[in-house]
Amino acid sequence: MIGFPQSVQGRTRDMQCPHATLLNLANFEQGTPRQEIARLRKNHRLVWQEDEYERGGHWLVLQRNDIDTVLKTPADFTNNFSPLLEDFPPDVLAIQQESLTFMDPPRHGEYRSMADFAFRPKALRARADLMQQMATQVIDAVIDKGECEFVEEVAMQLPMKAIYGLLGVKPEDYQYVADITNTLALANDPEYAVDRDAGFAASMEAYLFGEKLAQDHRDNPRDSMTMDMLQADKNGRSLSNSEYAGFFVNLIVGGMETTRNTTAWLIYEFIRYPDQYALLQADPGLVTHAVEEILRYRNTVVYLRRTATHDMEFAGESVKSGDKLVCVLGSPSRSEEFFDSPDRFDITRDPIHTRRQYRTFGAGPHFCIGVHQARMMLELITAEIAARMTNLRLIEEPVHFRSNFMDGFKRMVIGFDKREG
Ligand code: HEM
């Protein structure tokens, strides 16, 4: 039963730490502050916190039922102002509002159906062999070295080859697209962006690249998901270059960082818990379990923001039109209500139960379009690693990137032995 602490100026704050703000970047230096989230979840349904850099504040949404309500009720909680906490400059916002992640139904559903077909299980099965070959090549490239910088050399390689390949990006452009994706997704880390404006500029660059990619496909038709999307007939009309560009940005941002970070976290946890890695090596059938467990234990998208469309009573609070609601996706992942010993990394948990309980891929109309693709990539690379690498170890302390939205590493140098037989 959740108690409702004292309300300040009509909005409940956390009286134990009234000036603390969960989403302050400093709290994320070692990854998501999960103990603090657990403490807040035990005491609150909604709690009001100040924004770090902007005037005003936001509601943290901590209970799974409330997260589901916010994500599944776009008429009350719109996506039009971004899933990110920061407000976009008006010119950037106007362009972003033409892309999938900023849209509400019914427009959202019409657009999403133009890409959905490429991510259905049938389409995925058709590219399973190719992705298996890619996973093998990724490990081939490092296996004889005995050590590698895991994030760049392994974790990022499969999503990069698979997603860029699928979209028909030319291999010579892969690094450029990866660099702008890092800048726009990790704009709070000075290694990737000098400031937030550099992040907004990178969004524009990615968008322009998407437009050029569409035009290149029209000039030089080739077999790719981009071609399929450009040719899709939607009530007698097809996507323009700029409409396609919005999709392109969503797909590269949605697919790359998330999958890369999840892979890196999995190897990190296997190094921390070698008994769990030994279990997987002894029984390759546990690969699905291992992937679901890391998606639960280290969900990489920290939060999703929505914006209230009108004044309302919600979760015991008076929410005002324009208030930001920030759903903390990792909150249910570590709740005893849904998992036994939730802070234990345990790859023997039932994967079906796990995936039903967590909200790692969101919920409602914007639920991750690439969920099957993500699971397939994660399972392929995990199986390949477990079959070929043993005695995993850290060579240096891994470095987290600076972000309160994405949880992951920018560098992780690991050592390993070749697994014989
Ligand atoms: C571990 C991997 C992944 C995680 C944790 C993840 C997580 C998420 C989450 C939480 C959302 C909801 C966003 C919202 O409600 O505003 C989302 C949406 C989305 N994801 Fe993923 N994702 C992953 C992999 C992928 C992949 C591989 C792709 C595509 C290649 C992809 C493409 C997208 C797109 C396009 C959306 C927007 C859907 C919409 O707005 O309707 N994601 N993802």
TrEMBL record:
Superkingdom of source: Bacteria
Keywords: Heme, Iron, Metal-binding, Monooxygenase, Oxidoreductase
Gene3D superfamilies (UniProt xref): Cytochrome P450
Signal sequence segment: none
Listed SUPFAM superfamilies: Cytochrome P450
Family: Belongs to the cytochrome P450 family.
Protein name (record): Cytochrome P450
